[in-house]
């Protein structure tokens, strides 16, 4: 069984491309369109990495990340989170770190870099 990735992204285009790119790398993909869906999926499943859009409806990526870090289940609370944002310049690395985010990527997404980061955080072969 491959590593499991949750793609939390309200853009269908980005979600579809990321799903195709990561599926090709043999990752198992799950997706969510808003922060409430993210929290519901994380409650039910364990993921190896979460790709977290910062600007999502219902619950933004920063708040989702904080809530995941506060979970009682230690394995879920430690899931690596990679933020994906079109507003990277509006946040400092400290802002992401304070929310419990391990790494971040600006939009438009460099999919080669995305694959590299996912491999790093899942311990997959690079």
From TrEMBL:
GO biological process: phosphorelay signal transduction system
InterPro entries, per database record: CheY-like_superfamily, Sig_transdc_resp-reg_receiver
Coiled coil: none
Residues that bear 4-aspartylphosphate: 53
Domain Response regulatory: 4-122
Key words of the record: Phosphoprotein, Two-component regulatory system
Keyword Phosphoprotein belongs to the record: yes
Name this protein carries in UniProt: PAS
């Amino acid at each position: 069984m491959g590593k499991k990735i949750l793609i939390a992204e309200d853009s269908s285009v980005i979600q579809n491309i990321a799903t195709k790119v990561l599926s090709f790398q043999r990752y198992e993909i799950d997706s969510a369109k808003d922060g409430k869906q993210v929290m519901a999926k994380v409650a039910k499943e364990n993921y190896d990495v979460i790709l977290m859009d910062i600007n999502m409806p219902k619950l933004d990526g920063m708040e989702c990340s904080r809530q995941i870090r506060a979970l009682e289940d230690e394995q879920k609370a430690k899931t690596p989170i990679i933020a994906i944002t079109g507003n990277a310049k509006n946040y400092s690395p400290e802002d992401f770190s304070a929310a419990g985010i391990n790494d971040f990527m600006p939009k438009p997404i460099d999919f080669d870099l995305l694959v590299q980061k996912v491999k790093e955080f899942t311990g997959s072969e690079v």
